[in-house]
Amino acid sequence: MTETVSGAAAKTGAGLKIQRVFSTKGKHPYDEITWERRDVVQTNWKTGETVFEQKGVEFPDFWSVNASTIVTTKYFRGAVGSDVREWSLKHIVDRVVKTYTKAGLEHGYFATKADAEVFEHELTWLLVHQYFSFNSPVWFNVGTPSPQQVSACFILSVDDSMDSILNWYKEEGFIFKGGSGAGLNLSRIRSSKELLSSGGTASGPVSFMRGADASAGTIKSGGATRRAAKMVVLDVDHPDIVEFVETKAREEDKIRALRDAGFDMDLGGKDITSVQYQNANNSVRVSDEFMRAVEDGTEFGLRARKTGEVIETVDARELFRKISTAAWECADPGLQYDDTINDWHTNPETGRITASNPCSEYMSLDNSSCNLASLNLLKFLRDDDTFDAELFAKAVELIITAMDISICFADFPTESIGKTTVDYRQLGIGYANLGALLMAMGLGYDSDGGRAMAATITSLMTGQSYKRSAELAAIVGPYAGYQRNADAHKRVMRKHQAANDTVRTLHVADSQVHKAATKAWAEVIKLGEKNGFRNAQASVLAPTGTIGFMMDCDTTGIEPDFSLVKFKKLVGGGSMQIVNQTVPRALRKMGYQPEQVEAIVDYIAEHGHVVDAPGLKTEHYEVFDCAMGARSLKPMGHVRMMAACQPFLSGAISKTVNLPQSASIEDVEDVYLQSWKLGLKATAIYRDNAKVGQPLADGGGKAKKDAAAAAEAAEVIEKVVEKVVYAPTRKRLPKSRQSRTTSFTVGGAEGYMTSGAHDDGELGEVFLKLGKQGSTLAGVMDAFSIAVSIGLQYGVPLETYVSKFTNLRFEPAGLTDDPDVRMSQSIMDYIFRRLALDYLPFETRQALGIYSADERQRYLETGSYEPLEETGSAAELLDGSSADLAGRVDSSGGRVASASERIETEDAGVPEVPASATKEAHTSAELLEKITGTAVDSPLCFTCGTKMRPAGSCYVCEGCGSTSGCS
């Protein structure tokens, strides 16, 4: 039994001297900020219903509308409309920071009251400037009359007794009621192939999972707006492992059958509740012994729970195949690598690590919890595009101090969880915006440079955390379980240090960070030997869903960027779609000139990807690879990034490896096998469209009937078309015709184009002069001109030629002497853009994304490409009293930004995506679907009805901040 250490009694040395790094002496952080009032109105896009409204909330002027909306709806306490309702960011930051500062003083963390004040100002500055955020329970509970719960992650335990099993249901229920999640391992429960003491046969863990799943579903439906979050783990040598593995896959078969019979089986549908085991993530805990048996093709023994004897032998490869097949079918189960997890365990003398939290990043002792905080990495990128390691390290040690203080006053859902947490003081510092940081630095996510940068940052974060933990141990004492586990803890610290020594840096930026990390780990070993450590664990990489939006992060956790086009809410209401603001920064970093940056960003706005973007070198494509889209990252790209960071984390990484729908079961097996070999602690996969229970526009029987009706109609049309014989006729040009000749220069090559039109102005012929008369090039261009001219006269629309020949990429390419077409990817690209400008109407060109110089200038001045006679004068558009452009709706139903907003966005190099491509899109996921024509396989938000996007092992809604189980 360990003795709990808490309060001032644990103090062994002088308090901390807090250095002022971020805030300004003599000036409160709030006084350095311009504050503004906003109205927060949240609407369910699906139903049109207003689900939340609070007017006059106060936020810094640099906070996005999305961030302020999420904080207002999620974290402001007090009934809406009452006098006690919080209405300013200052209220919740003061509520939290002052509670932490007061507890730090009471428990002896600070040398003087002046140091406590500096701590308060520094923490406040970091929070209001979005440098980091605590996890959601802190914002929910700290400083309120509610229990001061600060932890988001819980691990429970269950033994092979009915009392323990029923207690599991109870404890899980209380945790779900509070909006959190928990995980546990059921491997202690006897299998259905073993006998009870009474002589009967045991029920087995899968049967008890059914009761827990029903309990979780009931509590969720009792008022929560998100599914219960839970993780269920079973060891691979459990005799019921096959039943466990296939449990959710068989339920998916049931979903398909019921859906085809006309039942509403969408997520949240009225009939989905009849399906079991849907409230948990399932994972198999595999051993090195099992994985080696899979490699060798040998047999593997399943063991009795009470005696440990082998009661059944199975083919390891066959069992591994069943695991991978189930994951291929329904995304469950994931794998947790037991020997790797416990080889990095700092407290093995207390007990093994058997389970994780629902998202698999927190792995520690049974009946424990972890409070989390995440840093916004992009905030530490200097103007010269190098990472500020020194500033990052200072932020980390301040945040770790605050997180440890919170354990002194925190409340916990059960007594056993409270005792373990206080005795071992597990922390979970992490980060968000890694994907955006790497892109801004010109580093591909799936590249050696990107992985080296991520590894060194992660190493510095954890090294600096343990350094501060050792410093705290000298002041307020090591954690109560340290002496029992001292040798093991110090061994793991040496493993981290050794892993840091193996990192091979590739450029100045990551070598600077690596140097700081190396110094931090040297201090960890030195101070740890002398003082011990205050915390058994220090770091994890969590999904950072809601808090990621609070910090205005482009990317969550360790994830790459979701897509290059984003959905942005605007002050005053409405929204617009923009190109990710990291893109122009990355292009400038890689040496592209302003004209080239503009052309590439325009191309991304139209197409949603960089393939064939004008002037962009193919070797730079990888910098802009995203989770979704034309150049989506390969599955092993995700695995390799996790493997680069895993050796520098106390816990694990919340992340799902996405596979395309076309992926095979062998692909799943490869991801799981390579993850083990590369030293990951856990892996989960998701194959696109694997799950049936995803919300669609019209599900169930109606969708089936509509599909059948559409197929029948298509068949009728096909039969009718078969009977129609189409014979094209040639429309010749008159003998005397209107024509125009254009001289041009593309990338230094000169040429001439003569175009002739019919009497109605329709283009009928094109002649191109390039190269010397009689040369091969001149002959080819003559033949091409004749082919295009005949096609035009036989009725091929000009817009068809334009869509086919623009964006063709070959030399000569580059700058032109045409003010309307400033950059061209080739002569063909230029010619057909020029023809479009000369002969196509504005509406057709707008759909193709082709605008004249005057139209682009009008866009900057008025926020619209359209001619002024159609939309009103510029004065009217800029005059809010006569025509409020900020609230005007364009012809596609999307909102047009105000002129000031549009100009500001243009200056940042992030033009709006064409409205024709974004009709009815309300999130980045929906926007990507509209632009690329590909589906994003994620659920709709229960709160606001928009499509969520992946975040770690869960989903998060960028419209309102709701999550599918993680905070």
UniProtKB/TrEMBL annotation:
Which reaction(s) does its UniProt entry say it catalyses?
a 2'-deoxyribonucleoside 5'-diphosphate + [thioredoxin]-disulfide + H2O = a ribonucleoside 5'-diphosphate + [thioredoxin]-dithiol
Q: Which Gene3D superfamilies match?
A: 3.20.70.20
Q: Show where the Ribonucleotide reductase large subunit C-terminal domain sits.
A: 151-686
Q: Which GO terms describe its molecular function?
A: cobalamin binding; cobalt ion binding; nucleotide binding; ribonucleoside-diphosphate reductase activity, thioredoxin disulfide as acceptor
What EC number(s) does its UniProt record assign? 1.17.4.1
Query: Which EC main class describes this enzyme?
Result: oxidoreductase
Alphabetical GO biological process terms: DNA biosynthetic process
Entry cofactors? adenosylcob(III)alamin
UniProt-listed InterPro entries: RdRp_reductase_class-2 (IPR050862), RNR_2_N (IPR013678), RNR_lg_C (IPR000788), RNR_NrdJ/NrdZ (IPR013344), TSCPD_dom (IPR024434)
Keyword tags: Cobalamin, Cobalt, Disulfide bond, DNA synthesis, Nucleotide-binding, Oxidoreductase
Q: What are the residue boundaries of the Ribonucleotide reductase class II vitamin B12-dependent N-terminal domain, all occurrences included?
A: 39-130
Looking up SUPFAM superfamilies in the UniProt record yields: PFL-like glycyl radical enzymes
Domain (TSCPD) ranges: 734-838
Q: Name one Pfam family in it.
A: TSCPD
Q: Which family does it belong to?
A: Belongs to the ribonucleoside diphosphate reductase class-2 family.
- What does it do? Catalyzes the reduction of ribonucleotides to deoxyribonucleotides. May function to provide a pool of deoxyribonucleotide precursors for DNA repair during oxygen limitation and/or for immediate growth after restoration of oxygen.
Name of the protein: Vitamin B12-dependent ribonucleotide reductase
Q: Which organism is it from?
A: Nocardioides panaciterrulae
